[in-house]
Design goal:
mainly alpha, single chain, two-stranded antiparallel sheet, about 10% strand
Length: about 100
């Protein structure tokens, strides 16, 4: 698991509250709870090129607000498959 440290660093040094916990409802009726920081790391550690590009676009155009980030990540985690991959990644990360 090698994320681009420079890229994730720009989010860590922003004014965003990355330690905020969010719960997203899934398309199958379930739910997933995550830290914003973990969700961003998940995007950069895995093959979510479109999502990564979108986050970087928001950042570079000064459009990356707390509300925009939360809305984007809730929408991304709506898919049960994405949420399942996130939980699997989170468990592996916890074991390291």
């Amino acid at each position: 698991m090698h994320a681009n440290k420079k890229t994730t660093f720009i989010f860590e040094n922003s004014s965003l509250d990355l330690h905020k916990t969010i719960t997203s409802t899934l398309d199958n009726g379930g739910a997933v709870t995550f830290l914003l920081k973990d969700a961003i790391e998940f995007i950069f550690y895995n093959k979510y090129a479109n999502e990564k590009e979108f986050l970087l676009h928001l950042y570079h155009t000064n459009s990356l607000t707390q509300n925009a980030l939360e809305c984007f990540l809730k929408h991304m985690m709506f898919s049960k498959d994405t949420a399942k991959n996130f939980v699997r990644w989170q468990r592996k990360k916890a074991l390291l």
